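FAQ: What does the model actually see?

It sees only this:
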Amino acid sequence: MSTEAPNDENSEVFTIDKVAVGKRLDAFLAEQVEGWSRARLQRLIDGGDVLVNAKAAKPSYKLREGDEIDVDLVEAPVERFEPEDIPLDIVYEDEFLAVINKPAGMVVHPGAGIPNGTLANAIAWHFRSEPPAVVGGLAEPKGNNEVSETSDDAFGNPPLTSSGSDRVGIVHRLDKDTSGLILVAKDEKTHEALAEQFRTRTVEKSYVALVHGSPRENKGTIDRPIARDRWHRTKMTVAANGREALSIWKVRQRFEKFTLLEVEIKTGRTHQIRVHLASINHPVVGDATYNEGRDNTIANADIKKAVQKLDRFFLHSERLAFAHPNTKERLSLFCELPGELAQLLETLQ
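And it is asked to produce this:
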């Protein structure tokens, strides 16, 4: 069995060899995808987030030699990470969850070639130094906020101690060079409740993107399936046999040769906004993976230099709204553009 390592954190690709032939799909993935339970993987399979040879399959599917399995990790499990003292910009926090403003350039999870320095490592440090008031986000607190140090919790996880926990439940993902809001659960029960809101599409996720060109309309919907590119395995593409993907956009501001868009996504596919906007010939500025060299065609020398200096793509997770799993209150959080993106807009003015 061989494993491909796409240049994103949201998916994994496996090619089946003789050793794995005959295994159930869900059992095989439970062995290979660290931190994921078989039940959660079955849910991914049933939801069409696992493809075998570019087609949906059942959890009971028996593997054959040469099968290619493409797994879209639309939700992340609660995992342990090595705590690292890395500063965090915390937009909201209580004893159940936190919302972080992730800077561009920071990877969300450790992975191949990136063992540390990630958002998960930073959050593990913060959670460890800030012990939650309760164990289990939806459970009642124990007397005097005391936690047993001798038994596992209801999910089979090691107990939290007075020094907090290095378990991190990042509920969704952002690409390395996407900045902005990301939601983190402090325990398994809160994580599962928030993940359910993502699955049922009751979470509002709104991004700001600067794109090349000027759309004819002021708003639009992109309802196009997304799959892994057959020829460039580290990229995604619009394809009829892909996973359902829905993005809704509207114009916020027009510039000469560029447009600032507000994009709401109803699904969370790998590279979704970048792929969808490129598919309508309005790729994200600074996105060398999908804009096919459009940055190099910028005629204005000052603007071209400013884009090159940016050293990231112009995509920012600006707004996140969801129901708090414990209080049921609707939380709506906002995060302004980082300085480098705001400065580029000033240059365009």
